[in-house]
Design a protein that fits this description.
Layout: E1 3-8, H1 15-26, E2 30-36, H2 38-43, H3 53-62, E3 68-72, H4 77-84, E4 89-93, E5 108-112, H5 120-125, E6 130-136, H6 140-147, E7 154-160, H7 164-172, E8 177-179, H8 182-187, E9 191-195, H9 198-210, E10 214-218, H10 225-238, E11 242-245, H11 252-262, E12 269-278, H12 282-285, H13 290-306, E13 312-319, E14 325-333, E15 338-345, E16 353-357, E17 360-364, E18 373-377, E19 385-388, H14 396-409, H15 418-432, E20 437-439
Parallel strand pairs: 1-2, 1-4, 2-3, 4-5, 6-7, 6-9, 7-8, 9-10, 10-11, 12-15, 13-20
Antiparallel strand pairs: 12-16, 13-14, 14-15, 16-17, 17-18, 18-19
Helix pairs in contact: 9-10, 10-15, 13-15
The chain binds cytidine-5'-triphosphate.
Length: about 450
């Protein structure tokens, strides 16, 4: 019996795939099809895959050509599979010519002509893209902008800024609209990304929602809980997406760490300690409170792991001349746990995250907020474990994918719960009111 194997993502299964599978099957008697796992695709830079692994497997099965479907999960697996299944022929489309010649050592390699004129990427692109308007003056706008081209179905259509550097970039990129007029921007887009000053968020979000535009807004979404609740209700009423942006929530390593904690891997969590600080030039730092800049990121693991029902929150802050805090420490007391958060613009400490539990602790080295790596540390070092997950674009592009998909589906499955968003707003409110605060 001649055994044939082939691999692919098979997203939005199309005629090109079917023809490939048909010809692969005809090369032998038994066809094995390897469908790529979501994580493996992400590692390969395919972040836009629309269908889940199960949907893609079902679609391949439904063609009737595969005698067996397997999942491709790691680099180098092809050699393992060829040996394990005693494969005679490896085949893929001609877009891969030369790439798999190294497999000739293990079996015959055949490249089949690719079907012209159709691809999953094109099918994903063909829907009319969401026109995104960028709003803000901070350099971070530029960072987010660089990530947009990685996301199918999203394009930057306009820019609203007071920054000379960003305006110049807008003109270089050939944007048709670069303006200081927020209402003018709203007319030209389907959705906005807000990286304006936190005091402007509530007004700008309301305005966008009232005009029927979706909103992705850097955290803190609002500086008061009530405003946050009102805007969330407005978004629901208008059937629009309102999403808070904290890129760390979309980093795979962070998301997996959270699952381990929720799954009880370190027992009961007794303490969460997070620090995020930076020493930056006066241009950005002077504009922002340290707590606004870093607070939401540092608060994210606290609220996601321990919940938002804390008993007490004490704040110690140091303010600089302009009235902005350069360092803030928040201490939370829960019924059965504690948390501490250190943030600052103008102070530097080890930017690590430690989650302590009754069965061990999880350690994420600095800078934990853009991590690809973490460790489980136990009493017996032999039980320690390490995890690594590739992080592309600091998580921003995954965040943009989540936003775009939410708009397409008309439903937000956010990695940040509404209760977390509102708890962050509450902390900002306490901070502004200097509630429970000691001045350093
Ligand atoms: N294939 C083909 N003809 C096409 C598209 C794909 O023969 N028009 C083949 C590929 O060469 C590969 C298999 O089908 O052997 C699975 O390809 P996959 O990467 O899943 O599909 P693409 O449409 O190429 O996806 P993308 O656009 O995301 O790269």
């Amino acid at each position: 019996m001649v055994k044939v194997i082939t691999y692919g993502t098979y997203d939005l299964l199309h005629y090109g795939h079917i023809r490939l599978l048909e010809r692969a099957k005809a090369l032998g008697d038994y066809l094995i099809v390897g469908v790529t796992a979501d994580d493996f695709d992400k590692q390969r830079g395919k972040i836009n895959v629309r269908q889940s692994l199960m949907e893609r497997i079902e679609a391949v099965r439904a063609t009737g050509f595969a005698d067996e479907v397997i999942v491709e999960e790691y680099e180098g697996q092809k050699i393992d599979d060829i040996r394990k299944y005693d494969v005679d022929i490896f085949t893929v489309g001609s877009d891969w010519v030369g790439k798999f010649d190294y497999l000739n050592e293990y079996c015959q390699v055949i490249y089949l002509p690719r079907t012209e004129g159709v691809s999953s990427s094109e099918l994903r692109e063909s829907d009319s893209p969401v026109r995104l308007g960028l709003v803000g003056d901070a350099r971070f706008v530029s960072k987010l902008w660089r990530e947009v081209p990685f996301v199918n179905g999203l394009r930057v259509a306009a820019l609203c800024t007071r920054s000379g550097a960003l305006s110049a970039q807008g003109r270089r990129e050939g944007l048709t609209l670069v303006t200081e007029d927020y209402d003018g921007l709203l007319d030209a887009v389907d959705a906005v990304y807000l990286r304006s000053r936190p005091e402007e968020h509530a007004f700008q979000i309301r305005r966008a929602l009232e005009r029927g535009k979706h909103v992705l807004c850097e955290s803190p979404l609002t500086l008061s809980r009530r405003e946050g609740e009102e805007l969330m209700a407005l978004a629901k009423e208008k059937k629009l997406i309102l999403m808070e942006a904290i890129k760390t929530a979309y980093a795979t390593a962070y998301a997996r760490l959270l699952l381990l904690v929720k799954g009880g891997r370190i027992g009961e969590v007794l303490s969460v300690d997070a620090a995020c600080t930076s020493l930056r030039g006066p241009d950005d730092a002077a504009e922002w409170n340290g707590i606004h800049e870093w607070g939401p990121t540092a608060l994210l693991p606290v609220f996601q792991m321990l919940g938002t029902d804390y008993r007490d929150c004490r704040i110690a802050s140091r303010f600089r001349d302009g009235g902005h805090d350069s360092f803030t420490k928040l201490d939370f007391v829960y019924e059965h746990a504690v948390a501490s958060v250190k943030v600052g613009d103008g102070v530097k400490t080890e930017g690590e995250l430690i989650v302590s539990g009754t069965g061990g602790y999880l350690y994420v080295p600095a800078p934990w907020w853009k991590t690809d790596y973490f460790e489980l540390r136990c009493e017996d070092p032999a039980d320690n474990k390490r995890w690594f997950y590739q992080l592309d674009g600091e998580g921003i592009r995954y965040e943009l994918v989540a936003f775009t998909r939410a708009i397409e589906r008309g439903r937000l499955i956010s990695d940040i719960g509404e209760n977390v968003t509102l708890a962050i707003a509450s902390v900002m409110e306490s901070f502004d009111a200097k509630r429970n605060m000691v001045l350093l």
